[in-house]
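Dock D-ribose; give full complex structure.
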Amino acid sequence: MKIAIGADHGGYSLKEIVKKHLTEQGHEVLDLGTHDTQSCHYPVFAEKVAHAVASGECERGILCCGTGIGMSIAANKVRGIRAAAVSDCFSAEFTRRHNDANVLCMGERTLGPGLALLITDIFVRTQFEGGRHQTRLDLISEMEKKF
Ligand code: RB5
């Protein structure tokens, strides 16, 4: 799978860990920065990763910041993006099965690396169930067109 990844300074170290893990698993990882721990602005990287996913260049995106929350707020501004800030395995599974989340957001300051990698694995391998859940996603798409 081709996966876009990004972070701000608060998520840089976690991004590097997730990138190494995914690369070792054979995924193609497009690293859109940031590339060090110097203070920067998370919306810049949320937009880059969201665009890579919304345009179809990458199948999924992963964003890391201090909490994962700022990244999810910013990424969800891009049409077609369903970004989920996740900090447990159940949510990682069901945001794929029910929400077809295409961007995973995680917090370096809220998650240990072990849990973050478990969440990453679940997010990458779990399929969307479709059916009644697709109807709900269609309603979200209608909202995107309205506002
Ligand atoms: C940066 O200090 C921090 O605010 C950012 O990484 C993120 O947690 C925002 O949601």
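Observed: The longest helix spans residues 132-146.
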